[in-house]
Amino acid sequence: MLSRYSVSSLRCESSMSASPPGPEDGAKQPGTFPRSSNEGGSSSSSSSNNNNRNKPPGGPQQYGGGATPKPIEMQQAELSETEDTSYMYFRQEGLYANSFPKMKEIRRMGKLCDVTLKVDSHSFSAHRIVLASTIPYFYAMFTHNMAESRIKEITMKEIEPLALEALINFAYSGVVKIDTQNVQSLMVGASFLQLNEVRDACAKFLKRKFHPQNVLGIRQFADTLSCSKLIVSADRYIHQHFSKVASGDEFLALSCDELIEVIGRDELNVKSEECIFAACMRWVKHAQDKRAVHLPLILSNIRLPLLSPQFLADSVATEELIKTSHKCRDLLDEARDFHLMPERRALVATARTRPRCFDFVVGLIFAVGGLTKNGESVSTVEIYNPTTKEWSMGEAMTMLRSRVGVAVTNGKLYAFGGFNGTERLSTVEIYDPRQHRWSQGTAMHCKRSAVGVAALEDYVYVCGGYDGVTSLSTVERYCPKTDSWSTVAPMMKYRSAGGVAALGGYVYALGGHDGLSIFDTVERYDPFTDTWTKVRSMTNRRCRLGVATLGNKLYACGGYDGNSFLRSVEVYDPVKDTWTLIAPMNVKRSRVALASNMGKLWAIGGYDGESNLSTVEVYDPKTSTWTFVAPMKHHGGGVGCGVIPTPFQD
């Protein structure tokens, strides 16, 4: 960039000319820049014309006699030299940026305007060239020989006056104010004028305003504009916060078709199907005379077989609207049979028996306890934010805990048992993210490290582990509401360092060891019958593995098979009762934690046979690939892991 030039410097360095030509020399000289034809004359002009051309405005000035030429002040500009010295490019920075404010000022003064846009009783003058250059709708109108390209006054019927005025001003300034008062009319206008960037900005603004009381209305508004991004975001919010959305007035205003479309989604995030049933009965009873006729169709889209036998008996069978409908009673009988004949469930599998699965939780990943690089137990907590892709320190637990069991339910994180470096623990700690502190819960009946934990509906199941003497088969069930423990049926095998996860209303226990053998076996617990049943075994033996659920399937990764540390990963389909190997992790990981978040799997820490790991990698089921993300800063592996959902993000 150059800001000053003297006249004598405007020549190329060349051995062809030992001295610069005099200002009176009108002939083209070797090594000088040629004058273009619009510079006031040709190069063969007389000497007097050349002298006049060299005179600055405001009076004569002589350059002869070896006098130093007066420097010419230049605007910030850029000269691009080329290999061909017969020409150059000149670019003035800011020319375009400065032009639009000037055009805006010209429009404000009402000068040079050649078109008027009318909406109702409002008129807005503008320049065709500006509108055509900045708004795709007007570009098509003014450049394609349409009638409007020739008339001075154009009537606009599809846009509100204030929105049109704001978008015309945007055409001149590139800035538009979006607020709660104008966002809808502005988005309609931007969509009509094909201002996609403004439309998307309005959609982004509406996303920030999502609330259980308005998200259904925003979703319907987005649908009328075919704004797919906003529709997807609204649906995710509805899925994540269905219970709160269903308690609002907008939910009651849904049509029957709209209600069925919503409740038919697999992705609804509910503790149990009871939430769906209660929401639908509320909708029906809001206008019972008109809506009761739709109840059989609505019930056929509720997954009644997934309701508990007690709820079916106490709440469904006693409902008068159901008792008086033959079709509704048939659906109730189907649900009862599902519970009475569990051995036939696979034969009667339908959409009504398929568990819901909400995968797209946007949550903070908590890495709890674990080990240092030297293998010492820690109380440290690290938190990974998938939005910022960074780890930060969290509030430490009150006790050292490695091989700790972790679960999240009702927005709180629970740490069960573990090993403090000296003894196995039965104690429980509870983290409340709203208060950013840990509190003590009621201790378990048994000491347990290397324990498997899973949250299912209103309970947390703590399975197996090691008490310092032997591997355990016992299972305890924790009730967060009452902070109390009860004992349920033990597992079929003693399992220490196994994997445990909840899927489809069952608790699955995978792999592990009993002190003598490492298992590939899998069993699942049915809380309705209080029984464990064996299902298809994994393809590999694994202890110290990571287990998580995603997309109605169960994933098992890494671990140790007695000979090798593993990086293989396999997935279980409960409908087909089959295990399938998928893409392996990038590194071997035993004592690995696996978490499901944002529709992906996160493998955190572990041990590769040589050292404890702080690395983290993420599996994307859409691409079947593992990718490294930021490693933990203060852990060396062996962590417990849980995901606490955050306020809605997209």
From TrEMBL:
Top-level division of the source organism's lineage: Eukaryota
Location of the region described as Disordered in the Swiss-Prot/TrEMBL record: 1-70
Ranges in coiled-coil conformation: none
Biased composition (Polar residues): 1-18
UniProt xrefs under InterPro entries: BACK, BTB-kelch_protein, BTB/POZ_dom, Gal_Oxase/kelch_b-propeller, Kelch-typ_b-propeller, Kelch_1, KLHL18_BTB/POZ, SKP1/BTB/POZ_sf
Ranges of compositional bias, category Low complexity: 35-56
Domain named BTB: residues: 113-180
Pathway assignment: Protein modification; protein ubiquitination
Task of the protein: Probable substrate-specific adapter of an E3 ubiquitin-protein ligase complex which mediates the ubiquitination and subsequent proteasomal degradation of target proteins. May have a role in synapse differentiation and growth.
UniProt name for this protein: Kelch-like protein diablo
Source organism: Anopheles marajoara
